[in-house]
Specification:
The complex is a heterodimer of chains A (about 280) and B (about 280).
Chain A: H1 2-13, E1 40-43, E2 47-52, E3 55-59, H2 62-65, E4 70-79, E5 83-94, H3 96-99, E6 108-123, E7 126-143, E8 148-149, E9 156-178, E10 183-208, E11 211-222, E12 229-238, E13 242-251, E14 253-254, E15 261-262, E16 269-277
Antiparallel strand pairs in A: 1-2, 1-16, 2-3, 3-4, 4-5, 5-6, 6-7, 7-9, 8-9, 9-10, 10-11, 10-12, 12-13, 13-16, 14-15
Chain B: H1 7-20, H2 37-44, H3 52-64, H4 66-83, H5 88-105, E1 107-119, E2 136-144, E3 147-148, E4 151-162, E5 168-178, E6 189-198, E7 204-214, E8 217-224, E9 227-234, E10 245-250, E11 255-260, E12 267-271, E13 274-277
Antiparallel strand pairs in B: 1-2, 2-3, 2-4, 4-5, 5-6, 6-7, 7-8, 8-9, 9-10, 10-11, 11-12, 12-13
The chains are: A mainly beta (about 280), B alpha+beta (about 280).
Chain lengths: ~280, ~280
């Protein structure tokens, strides 16, 4: 049951985020290209629109619906007969106060995914892409509640403030083989380059009436989850207004937007994406 | 569209770096502790070799510094209260727990530093209400996975303490302390003060003193023409050191037990079969 639910969620939310929404048309995610101006694409998880020549913007629309703003933009800034190069930048913010007005915490999570992607057209029916994706996530706690008892100690924490951050770098590779006007096969891989985290905190502790300690702490860590990469194969049917992708992949689960690599307990995971173009 | 447009990737990278900067560790850059290694070595390993001439020189020097011993006792009494807030045992519930948690979960690098502020007693002693006008003692300490760094440093900020009955002492100046915890266990507890205090007439005079706390004794380093010697005086004897009594004198080879006459103008030291008289 758990596996089934997880599979359904991963399919819905696009665990292989950078490659979701794939179609046989050239303006897809793992290729360094964008939607034509004023073209819309609505998938199960997100909406994108071409807003200018070679510039598109979009959002995982279900996130703003739950008060989590998310937006991303892509610009194909170089293109010739063989090469296309694009950059994509996103932004997402989560604040507890958006969910609970009475929340005391000023905590804020901000995520900025960035990707640089190049596509080479080997033949008219065969294209290869290579991309580097970097995601930076930062959590700042703001001022935490005052006068909480230090855990297990005699001191009273007068105030506390903390910030945490994580960064992930990965390499994306994809091959697309078009078998006609509608059908394309693809092979895609993602490899983790680095995944680390750092944090800092400052606490003011009243040890006794005469003694006050301002404690600063910071640390960094290599977030080794044991997940190193994944490899998947898919087939995409791209009709004029409706696109469908079915695929399977093996290896790490990559958390959408966040870019974090997680170990995948299942030997194979399905990938499903549906989208409408208009 | 054949023109390369390098601006967007540059802007995108800058935006990612900007948000990444939200969690920058630079805000938490620890201060640089002073180097006390030479002074600690001097107390741990005196260079002189005791003979009658050196013994006379050392003890006469001690007589001239009887006031220093009393001030050292006052300084020690003052900072012991401040230091108790930063000793490893009292920190176990704050940083200690965090170190354990992080190092279990991650391959982590962790460091912390703390600023301890202790409110001085003022004219009415320890039981009096805290009043900022009586000054404070500030100490900084650093630490990491290996525990606390042995040097604490800071200073007395117009610190008012009771001294010899009804008299008050006002201490102002910088303090460095080598505290033998963690990896420094077994090394001497050395303090180095550079500032001012009130003399016997109640006038503020500048003063510089370094001394060590060895067990139940205070130790001064006496430099003579034949090298340095460490003189350990039992704390209970300090107030009346000129009345004679016992002390310990450490040279390059041995720790001598000494008996001195009133006025410190005569005495004998012995270790094993050897005796030195002056």
């Amino acid at each position: 049951m758990t596996a089934a639910c997880a599979t359904a969620l991963l399919g819905t939310f696009g665990a292989r985020d950078a490659h979701a929404g794939h179609s046989a048309d050239p303006d897809v995610d793992y290729l360094a290209e964008t939607l034509d101006q004023w073209d819309f694409r609505l998938s199960l998880t997100r909406v994108d629109v071409g807003v200018y020549e070679n510039v598109s913007v979009g959002s995982y629309y279900w996130l703003p619906l739950i008060k989590v703003p998310e937006v991303h933009a892509r610009w194909t800034f170089f293109q010739d007969a063989r090469w296309a190069v694009a950059a994509q930048l996103g932004y997402m913010r989560v604040e507890p106060k958006d969910f609970d007005k009475a929340a005391e915490s000023d905590a804020k999570l901000q995520i900025v995914p960035f990707e640089l992607l190049a596509t080479y057209t080997v033949r008219d029916d065969l294209r290869a892409s290579l991309g580097f994706a970097y995601t930076e996530s930062a959590v700042s706690s703001g001022q935490l509640a005052k006068s909480s008892k230090a855990s297990g100690g005699d001191g009273v924490v007068d105030s506390a403030e903390a910030s945490l951050g994580a960064s992930t770098g990965r390499l994306d590779a994809a091959f697309e083989w078009r078998l006609g006007d509608v059908l394309a096969l693809s092979a895609e891989a993602q490899a983790l380059l680095f995944q680390n985290a750092g944090g800092a905190a400052t606490e003011t502790i009243q040890v006794d009436p005469r003694t006050q300690i301002v404690l600063h702490q910071k640390g960094s860590a290599d977030l080794n989850t044991g997940a190193r990469g994944n490899l998947g194969f898919g087939a995409t049917w791209a009709w004029e207004h409706f696109h469908a992708k079915l695929g399977v992949y093996r290896g790490a689960i990559v958390v959408p937007i966040l870019g974090t690599f997680l170990r995948n307990p299942w030997p194979l995971l399905p990938e499903v994406d549906l989208s409408w173009r208009f | 569209m054949n023109r390369p447009r390098p601006l967007l990737p540059l802007v995108a990278c800058s935006a990612a770096a900007l948000v990444a900067g939200c969690r920058t560790d630079d805000d938490f850059a620890p201060p640089t502790p002073p180097d006390m290694s030479a002074l600690v070595s001097a107390y741990a390993a005196p260079t002189g070799r005791l003979d009658a001439e050196a013994a006379l020189e050392v003890v006469q020097g001690l007589a001239a510094r009887a006031g220093d011993l009393k001030k050292a006792l006052l300084l020690t009494t003052s900072i012991v209260s401040a230091v108790k807030g930063v000793e490893p045992d009292s920190m176990a519930t704050t940083e200690g727990g965090l170190v354990t948690t992080r190092t279990q979960a991650l391959n982590a690098i962790f460091e912390f530093w703390q600023e301890v502020q202790w409110a001085c007693y003022g004219p009415d002693g320890a039981e009096a209400p805290i009043d900022p006008q009586w000054g404070r003692i500030s100490l900084n300490t650093l630490g990491g996975q290996a525990g606390l760094y042995p040097v604490a440093w800071g200073g007395f900020e117009r610190c008012v303490m009771p001294f010899e009955g009804e008299r008050l002492q006002v201490i102002n100046g910088d303090l460095k302390a080598h505290i033998p915890w963690g990896e420094a266990e077994g090394q001497p507890f050395v303090l180095d003060f550079d500032g001012s205090w009130l003399d016997d007439a109640g006038d503020e005079v500048s003063a510089r003193i370094d001394f060590a706390v060895i067990g139940e004794s205070l130790a001064l380093l006496q430099t003579t023409s034949s090298g340095s010697f460490r003189v350990d005086v039992a704390i209970e004897s300090i107030q009346d050191i000129l009345a004679g009594g016992g002390l310990t004198l450490k040279d390059a080879d041995s720790e001598w037990r000494c008996t001195v006459s009133p006025g410190l103008d005569g005495g004998a030291c012995s270790v094993g079969e050897r005796t030195v008289q002056w």
